[in-house]
Amino acid sequence: MRRKLFVIFITILLILSCNQKTVYAQDTPTYPVYVVQPGETLTLIAEKFNTTVDDIINVNGIVNANLISEGTELYIPGLEGITGQLLTHSVNVGETLEDLSRANHIPLQTLLTLNKITSPNEVFVGTNIIIPINDGGSALYVAHSVAPQDTLLESAVHLQTNPWVVLDWNDTRTSNTLIPNTPVYAEISADQAISRISPYLKDIVIDPLPLEQGNTIVITVQTTEPLDISGMVEDHVLHFFPMSDQENTYYAIQGIHAMAEPGLVDFNLTGSSNGQSIFNYDQMLLQQEGVFIQDPPLYVQDETVDPAITQPEEDFAKSIVSQITPEKYWQGSFRYPVDGSVADDTIGFMSTYGNRRSYNNSEYIYFHTGLDFGVYVNNLNIYAPAAGVVAYTGNMTVRGGATYIDHGQGIFSGLFHQAEILVKEGDHVEAGDLIGIIGATGRVTGPHLHWEIWANGVQVNPVDWVNNSYP
Questions:
Q1: How confident is the model at residue 324 (pLDDT cuts 50, 70, 90)?
Q2: I need a labelling partner for 286 at 20 to 30 A (CA). Which of 20, 120, 125, 333 fits?
Q3: Residue 50 lies in a domain
């Protein structure tokens, strides 16, 4: 009986196995993962990766597309041969598509196809590209540049490895491609890497990228030894200062004008030592529009928009904020110059930075250069937004009762329309010190405080200085 049952059991197993489809690993598709960026929708993501919204919904089992938000991880269908995580990378100074291809073990054609790029010449500093990153792969960094008369063997000795490994790292079959000034990639740590621009440079970072109207950018340069660093962004001369807590690291802070022309702008970086030029590098930076609204038309006294009066005042203001004090007085982020909190609505803005403006039926050719604070608490106090030295106090036609504070290194605050100024030129102030009383002087339609920040001669969004800590 037992034998009969055993035979029946084996027969059933054989029948089931004949009807069972053999499943191989490759039958289960592996999709790359993309993290949703700020402001993106499924429609935008589908267009970015040349797929459809329905396919993304089906692959991810999405029930409600409205719940997709920044930070959501999505499988992306239709990208044959691509796996891992799809990261958004802003091309930085000195980087090329060829470099990114080699450093991340990605065929150049894959990068071109994935990003819908027809030519590497379309890529500029600040261009956002998608890079597939796989776990387990070691990133490659520039270890050194090929010097004249260098051989493959010398490069291998420099890297303390086998010559054939060097060829493999650099995706080449022959040492003939390692010509002078060619960057040589190797599996080294990031802190051992150098920039392909010069062996004296370890890294150059511009943050944030791309450039955007109204933003404050920081250019950080790390070198292999002490150097004198200088440079320009468009027509602005950059002023570099040593980073106090990092050896051979320098930074410059630059504002981007709220009405700067979108497109490509010139960037230059120069390094020298004892008066001798070490490197001189030029590259184009991508600059884009900010997002600003239009204020309702404003009606003010005619003399406050008369160029014969306003231009001399503007020139005088620029002469104040063009001074470059080498000391850095501020620490950390700035504070709002009034009592209250944005979180509980006891600070309110009558107008925000960058708003396009029309005065007395003009075209919208003006912009708001700072933040306007209404009176939301039971006092009119004005406080220093950060430590600094008072550079100017006085009355102006447009700005009314005005105070300028020099925070050091080309950073200034301007506080306008004051009824009473409680500090004098040369006073040192700390963040939170009482410096004035809100009023309605100058070009105003009612009592308020106007606060603006200048970064190397350009008015920038003060909110960035409250929400971020600059070097």
A1: very high
A2: 333
A3: yes
